[in-house]
Design brief:
By secondary structure, the chain is α/β, with parallel strands linked by helices. 40% of the residues lie in helices and 17% in strands. The chain folds into 2 domains: 30 residues, no CATH class; 202 residues, Rossmann fold, CATH 3.40.50. It has a 5-stranded parallel β-sheet, sandwiched between helices. A two-stranded antiparallel sheet has the order 1-2. Helix 6 runs parallel beside helix 8. The structure holds adenosine-5'-diphosphate (ADP), magnesium ion (MG) and zinc ion (ZN).
């Protein structure tokens, strides 16, 4: 079906406006809308998260969660003036980290910024595939995209087996973005000792003598990447509200 031609601008993306007896060209609304749609497509937000907005994020009766939501809405309003430029959402699974990070990304895109969603594990797989000539993945494409995207949403940071290669790769991406002051919006459920996260937890089977030693963020991405990340991100600690998916099934 042919696209309908915009009546205001005849499809040129520019409309003529009269002001104080003078006429001039101005960007037409349809051009903004088309750019918005293109930006949203290019952000590649996974279908699972396609519906995550601020509007459908519930505060679950927690004033801490409400405060975080307001802080993030303010972050979007101020963007890119915020200092530090990025965000790091830390907390247990199901507390809404990805939902909120996607809501932020979406709003920044609505404001005309370019951003991309990347799952940490998937990013590393794509970068690794780039070294394999048979993979069909173009060399360095994923790597460069992660380095250069105006806004990078890095979801589930640290959810990957640690190797020197992983550590070096993550460090170089984070360091590059830090040096260029390009924001990262990251989420992680790894505890961080300095942030008051507990590295030792009782196992969920409840047996009193069994404890699960959790790897820390620093162990999973390396000390250098961790410290650059803390330097360039505002740290947002999710409250202990439990897993939304479990709570909403009740
Ligand atoms: N406060 C909330 N209000 C509405 N939906 C929520 C909330 N918290 C989580 N969810 C939903 O629960 C699911 C899991 O949330 P998610 O953001 O993926 O958690 P996390 O990234 O912290 O593990 C998603 O479908 C998300 O939309
Ligand atoms: Mg998540
Ligand atoms: Zn138009």
């Amino acid at each position: 079906m042919p696209e309908q031609t915009c009546e205001r601008c005849g499809g040129t993306g520019w409309k003529i406006v009269e002001k104080d007896g003078l006429s001039g060209a101005q960007r037409c609304e349809c051009a903004f809308a088309a750019r918005g749609e293109a930006l949203l497509r290019r952000a590649r937000i996974p279908v699972n998260y396609a519906d995550d907005h601020f509007d459908n994020f519930s505060d679950r009766g927690s004033s801490d969660l409400r405060a975080i939501q307001l802080l993030l809405i303010r972050y979007c309003q101020d963007f890119p003036a915020g200092d530090p430029p990025g965000l790091l959402l830390i907390g247990e699974p199901g507390t809404g980290k990805t939902h909120l990070a996607v809501a932020v990304l979406r709003r920044l895109i609505e404001h005309g910024f370019e951003g991309v969603f990347m799952d940490y594990q998937n990013l590393l797989d794509r970068i690794r595939a780039g070294y394999d000539p048979l993979s069909g993945e173009s060399p360095r494409a994923a790597y460069e995209e992660a380095m250069d995207a105006e806004v990078l949403l890095l979801d589930d940071l640290g959810a990957h087996r640690v190797t020197d290669w992983v550590e070096d790769t993550v460090t170089s991406i984070i360091t590059h973005r830090c040096n260029e002051r390009k924001p990262v919006i990251a989420t992680t459920n790894l505890p961080d000792a300095e942030m008051g996260g507990t590295l030792v937890e009782r196992m969920s089977d409840g047996a009193p003598s069994r404890y699960d030693i959790k790897s820390s963020l620093a162990e999973k991405i390396g000390m250098r990447a961790r410290s650059r990340l803390f330097e360039m991100c505002r740290i947002v600690r999710m409250p202990k509200v439990g897993d939304y998916r479990v709570a909403s099934r009740k």
